[in-house]
Amino acid sequence: MDKIAFDHTDEGSSLNCNEDKTENGSDSACPSSVRGKPKSGRIWKSQKLRFASIKKSVQCKKSSQQHAFREEIKHIKELSRSIKETRRRENDIKRLRREENKRRRIENERKSEIVQVIKNPAKLKRMRKKQLRMIERRDISKLNVV
Fold first, then answer.
1. Which candidate in 4, 30, 66, 146 could, as Cys together with 17 as Cys, close a disulfide (CB 3.0–4.6 Å)?
2. What residue segments make up the domains of the chain, in order of their start?
């Protein structure tokens, strides 16, 4: 019997693109690089390219269009700059207000405290550790103590 050999490669597939070229020599039917199904099975993932390798489109705009485009970009940049500036100013105002409120709160706490001046240093020797921890040094000239 005659043995029949089958070629398992598909003649019209893009895998054999380099081997089979059309008679006129154009290779437009096959893509530049053929990628098969990923091993992970994640077919929705695209191949990552470096930013420099991405082909940029050739600009075919008229000079008036380019000028309008540049003006629009300048306007957008100026707008974003002004927004950033206002946001920075608002943050500075808020920060200054917080600092002022904190300073006033501490000042009010100091005013409202009941202060007892210790004139006898021997009393400090007799005090327990817990009481000594609560003692704070203050400038008496600022306090309104008689």
1. 30
2. 63-130
